[in-house]
């Protein structure tokens, strides 16, 4: 995870900017491109991790909005790209409110510029590990009504936390804040016990000095006492695929598609 100060250091890679580069964005520095090119050139096929994770986020947000949720908190949101949470949700309900949270100052700058005319969406700079600080942020207090259902999104962020940073406790904090009928979405790198998994994990750990891949069981445990909805914790390409564009059930997934899983849970 990047430095949470307001100073952008172009000599240090950023998780958000590397992800932006892999998704075809343009808000990155040469140091970020170098990491991204490692995945593109040295681990061919691995870019599908980023693209398929974005696609599952779009599907999950769309389903939540169609189910009636009108408030979203996107923790570790990354840089604005196509099909952001607010854009997807507001297609179904224009009154949706969204709080984006990221600790990269470039996300704050670009997000505020993008959302300048949208009073239902805000970007705040904070670290996902500071759950209490995020909850008490004036913009969160202003925009989110915790008496009404809230969707909390952890899209490809919790695997950047080490065990001693208690990702399960962070999820539990938010679970305790939200009322019945709320939802939690998690996507997470999984342990694959193969060379490809180890190569990606080693690259990210050596670059950012943190992170841990987890088993399906460990990822499911992050949801705590929430009710995990069908189809459970599964590879993102198989999580409620679009019947027209994403029928992955009829083919075997690549090793890269198996590397990241997702699940959606409801608070009874």
UniProtKB/TrEMBL annotation:
<protein>
    <submittedName>
        <fullName>S-adenosyl methyltransferase</fullName>
    </submittedName>
</protein>
<dbReference type="GO" id="GO:0032259">
    <property type="term" value="P:methylation"/>
</dbReference>
<dbReference type="Pfam" id="PF04672">
    <property type="entry name" value="Methyltransf_19"/>
</dbReference>
<dbReference type="GO" id="GO:0008168">
    <property type="term" value="F:methyltransferase activity"/>
</dbReference>
<keyword id="KW-0489">Methyltransferase</keyword>
<dbReference type="InterPro" id="IPR029063">
    <property type="entry name" value="SAM-dependent_MTases_sf"/>
</dbReference>
<dbReference type="InterPro" id="IPR006764">
    <property type="entry name" value="SAM_dep_MeTrfase_SAV2177_type"/>
</dbReference>
<keyword id="KW-0808">Transferase</keyword>
